Amino acid sequence: IVACRSGRVEFAGEDMAGCSTSYRIGCGMAIVPENRRVFAPMTVLENLEMGAYLRKDDLTEDYQRVYDLFPLLYERRSQLAGTLSGGEQQMLAMGRALMSRPRLLLMDEPSMGLAPILVEKNFEIIKQVHETGVAILVVEQNANVSLGIADRGYVLQTGKVVLADRADALLAHEDLRKAYLGR
Hints:
Layout: E1 10-11, E2 14-15, H1 21-27, E3 29-32, H2 44-51, H3 60-69, H4 71-75, H5 86-98, E4 104-108, H6 116-131, E5 135-139, H7 143-149, E6 152-157, E7 160-166, H8 167-172, H9 174-181
Parallel strand pairs: 3-4, 4-5
Antiparallel strand pairs: 1-2, 6-7
Helix pairs in contact: 2-5
């Protein structure tokens, strides 16, 4: 949405900065936006269909995969998305993104506004999705939980990377622990 002022945004060796959303999705990118951004007047099932709108193949397996990850979505598939709780909407936003069969899943603040038990559950699911071969980039202020499942981490201050390392090394970094981890 915001044009790059400098640098490049590359995915699979291709500059994505000027590409359309449809093109990016077709290349294997999907996003779970901050605040979920579900289509409130549509049902859960219709929201999932929106995640696969570029696909022309059979979606049966993908619905099943999403429902296996989020059984509650199956129970609520006819319910309007706007009537779901925040945690349920986060599940729906994740499921919708997975319907495109992404190779790269971008997640913006997946724990925002969620109860701690739901945060833990959602990050377990993020880890499961990653284990299927999907690369995941998470922007998250909850450093403890995100670094707990990450391979690598980057700490930004005023738009600049100030620390970059393996997640376990960042968790052990004294300055980071004091500033962000409350230890």
